[in-house]
Write a structure and sequence with these properties.
two-stranded antiparallel sheet; about 40% helix; two-stranded antiparallel ribbon; alpha+beta; Kinesin; actin binding; 5 helices
């Protein structure tokens, strides 16, 4: 559900069909009220604002451990690469797969979550003035080294 400009989502802890590529198409260029609240709508609103107003946009994902932040971020980036019409599949795959590499060095198992991120991520996507995605840069911060190196 939305609370103002904020999307509140709950991790279902299972795969559901509202994250398919077919479902993502429902949100491309649609009014916010045309479909139920969704992470794809957040991506579209941010993208459309960036293109329309030629202004940088920021989307913050926060929540408790196990809330689904990593998965939400992946879906958001996936939708932004679709909206940004990544000219080749390789660029889209690179942007989406870089997260797996970062997770390999910064995730650990916890009681709540088998693949818990032990750091924050800042992903900056690069777009042309026309809205075509041309790259991305990821930075990590607040790495909890003791939780990654030693088993809890």
């Amino acid at each position: 559900t939305y609370v103002g400009d904020i999307l509140i989502a709950v991790n279902p802890f299972r795969n559901i069909d509202i994250y398919s590529s077919q479902h993502s198409k429902l949100y491309i260029g649609a009014k916010r009220t045309a479909n139920p609240p969704h992470i794809f709508a957040v991506a579209d609103i941010g993208y459309q604002s960036m293109v329309t107003y030629n202004s940088d946009q920021c989307i913050v994902i926060s929540g408790e451990s196990g809330a689904g932040k990593t998965q939400s971020a992946h879906l958001l980036v996936q939708q932004l690469t679709v909206l940004g019409k990544a000219n080749n599949r390789t660029l889209q795959e690179k942007i989406l797969q870089v997260n797996n590499l970062v997770e390999a060095f910064g995730n650990a198992g916890t009681i709540i979550n088998d693949n818990s991120s032990r750091f924050g991520k800042y992903l900056e996507m690069k777009f042309t003035c026309g809205g075509t995605v041309v790259g991305a840069q990821i930075s990590e911060y607040l790495l909890e080294k003791s939780r990654v190196v030693h088993q809890a």
